[in-house]
Amino acid sequence: MARIGLLGGTFDPPHNGHLILAETALRELELDRVILIPARVQPHKINRVSASADDRMKMLGLAIGGKSRLEISDVELRRDGPSYTVDTIEKLRILLPGDQLFLIMGADNVSEIESWLEPERIFDLATVAAANRPNFKAGGRFADAVIYFAMPPTNISSTEIRAKIGAGESISGLVSPDVESYIVRHRLYQKG
Fold it and tell me: What are the structural domains, with CATH classification, of the chain?
């Protein structure tokens, strides 16, 4: 039985914070691998995705490079409509029978779980694990049902990266060099 981490998001664009989270989860939760799952449309972020699904998949592939224990799944991209976590985990439970699934997130997302579709079912299907930040206490109805692990502080967001690109500022050090080159080459996130 393998221990598999699931890390979802828009990855618009995938940045070094995503990689730090995935690699920290691998180590701290003693996972065999982490599957990164780009969303088609996140229910809480409708009309916010700036790059196409194809571009986001390609950038994610560049971001993880040759990291053998990081994989990408297009399970949400192949499905129409919003990407509900419970649906994704149910699908992966079928594809990965017998494996132990860990839903990975930041501790700041724990309080949002109660607003997700079928939150109780999510906890039935997977172990929810959150990267804790210093001096942060997760809240919400499910806070005590989550496993927490320590993660080095990172302050990188895709929103910040898109804003920097739109303003003509450097994003060096926020994304991998290959992702940065892809963004420049394909003129992603630029205004006008």
Answer: 3-155 (3.40.50.620)
